[in-house]
UniProtKB/TrEMBL annotation:
Its EC number is 5.4.99.5. This is chorismate mutase. GO terms for biological process: chorismate metabolic process; salicylic acid biosynthetic process. GO terms for molecular function: chorismate mutase activity.
Length: 103
C-alpha cells in the first residue's frame, strides 16, 4: 500500500524550498537569455529596415520551427509546446521589426 506524502508546511519544507530555488534560478536564466535574443533580433530588425529586407522570413521560420521541434524531442520536451513557444517569440520579433521599419 502506498504511503501518503507528509503534510509539510510549504513555508518550512526544505526540499520544496530547494526545488523552488532551482526553478527561480532557471526562470532568471530564461529571462536573461530571452533578453539577449531580443537584443540580437532588434539589431536584425534594424538591419532589415536599413537594407529594405522584409520583416518576416517564412522559410527561415519554418526551418527554425522544424529544428527546434527536433531538439525538443531529443530533450524530452513536448514538441507542440516548443513550437507554440517559438512561434510566440517569432511573432514578437516580427512585431519589433515592423516597429523598427516605421521609425
Amino acid at each position: 500500500m502506498a504511503k501518503d506524502p507528509p503534510m509539510n508546511n510549504p513555508a518550512t519544507d526544505t526540499q520544496l524550498a530547494a526545488f523552488r530555488r532551482s526553478i527561480d534560478n532557471i526562470d532568471a536564466a530564461l529571462i536573461h537569455i530571452l533578453a539577449e535574443r531580443f537584443r540580437i533580433t532588434q539589431a536584425v530588425g534594424e538591419y532589415k529596415a536599413q537594407t529594405e529586407l522584409p520583416p518576416a522570413d517564412p522559410d527561415r521560420e519554418a526551418k527554425q520551427i522544424s529544428r527546434l521541434r527536433k531538439l525538443a524531442v531529443e530533450a524530452d520536451l513536448d514538441p507542440e509546446f516548443s513550437e507554440k513557444f517559438i512561434r510566440f517569440v517569432i511573432e514578437e520579433v516580427i512585431r519589433h521589426h515592423h516597429i523598427a521599419r516605421s521609425k
